[in-house]
Amino acid sequence: EKISKVVSMKPKVMIPVINGKFGNMDPLEAALLTRDVQAKIVIPCHFWTFAEHNGDPQSFIEACRREAPQVKVILMKQGKCYIESSTVDKNKQPKGDN
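^ Metallo-beta-lactamase domain-containing protein, sequence as received from the core. Prediction below:
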């Protein structure tokens, strides 16, 4: 039921969990959801966070290539941010380092 709500929202950017632990999606399940949602950008998360968390970003990338080839996969470093430029009001951008 929760998944169908996400699919119906059709988010442009999606941040799925890929560790496959504790009831979370694994890389393939996350790629299938990415396909169903038709996201344009996907940022995988919750991999390598703790020793007991698995999740392989490369497996997720490969699954996305097969299941959702239209998506742009972005891997983030801890502490970094991503701003989707099409969602930013150019008149309200903060000044300084962007």
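The domain at 2-92 is CATH 3.60.15.10 (Metallo-beta-lactamase; Chain A).
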